Structure formats: structure tokens, C-alpha cells
Amino acid sequence: MSGSQPYESTGRTAQKLRTRTALIDAARALIVSGVTPTVEEAADAASISRTTAYRYFTNQHDLLVAVYPEIELRSLLGEHSPDSVEARLDAVVGEYLRITIDNEAALRAALRLSLDPHGTHREQLLLRQGRVITWLKEALEPLRGQLSEQAVERLVYAIRAAAGIEALVWLTDIAGLSREKAKDLMMWSARALLQSALAEAEPQA
Predict the structure, then answer these.
(1) Which residue would you say has higher pLDDT here, 114 or 136?
(2) In this structure, are residues 23 and 53 in contact, taking their beta carbons and an 8 Å threshold?
């Protein structure tokens, strides 16, 4: 067997897939509870031996990436990104909101912990580490030179405030919208903020 070949790709693959899935599910449940799990903690939660768990995930980073692949995403645009800023923003916000809804339970837990006045867990919040700001800045890259740096930054923060787990919680729990309608409204808000920023823009020297 090649040293680079994944452990679960050989032998009893169906059983190994079930074991891997059990570890991922256990890790995801721990994250929802507010814990950023180690391989050992996921193994214990899944009632799988630690030795076995390490055959699937050699370290915590590999486990967390398997649970939430988006934690390593540096871009949501892909190789063939649109040229227009409107299309780029739609693509990024749409994919970001899909990720948000898919991971809603874990993000709700992270949001709850981030509101802890003592900040005990903040440094461990796997899903709240500023990735969205990077994604939005990339989407708005065509505005460089058209808007000032301050205006672009203000727009990024405004869009982030209008679209994400915080807005999703309010729109679904308080306003009573379905997740599909909430997503549509957040997309509309992002577009409206972009148009407002463009309308306010003064020619840059």
C-alpha cells in the first residue's frame, strides 16, 4: 500500500467509511456544544479507540477540515470568477449563506459563545475567525480605485452585518421567515448596500 494512500481507501472500505463518518459526526456535535474537539475527544465521543481514530485523522487540524472544509477556504469565487462586482458579490454572498445555513447549528453555538461577557471561549471559536471579511474583500476587489479604501471597508462591514448567522437568527426566529426567504432578503440587502455605496461614490483622484 502506498504511504500516501488514505487509510480508509483500502480494505473494508464500507466499514471504514462508517467509522470515519462516526468520528466526523461526533466532532460536529462537540463543536455545536461549544467545544473545538481534538482527535482524542472525537474518538471518545464516538466510542472509537483513539488508536483507530488516529488512522483516519493524524491531527486536530485534519479532523476539523473534514468536519468543516470551509475553514480552509481562502476564496469563494473559484478559478473562473465573474468580472463585474455585482456578479462577484452575488456569487460570494450566495455561497457564504449556503455555508451558513448548512452549518447553522454550529454557528448558533459559536454565536452564543462569542456573546460570553467573560470571553472564556472566544479564542477557540473555530467558525468565527473573520474569514467572511476576506471573502467579501475579494468579491469587491474591482472597486479598488473606484471607491476609497475606507469606503470599501465600510461596505464590507455593512454587508457582513446584514448577511450571516446573526441576521439569519433574527429573520427566522423573530421575523418568522423561512431560511430560503431569509437568504433571499440577505442577498437583496448585500446588493442594495453595494448600489448605495456606488451611488455615493465621488471620483477618486
Answers:
(1) 136
(2) yes
Cα distance between residue 145 and residue 177, in whole Å:
38
What span, in angstroms and rounded, lies between the C-alpha atoms of 120 and 50? 28
pLDDT of residue 172 exceeding 80, the answer is yes
CA atoms within 13 A on the CB side of 5: 7
- Global pTM reads 0.73
Nearest to 177 by CA among 110, 94, 101: 101
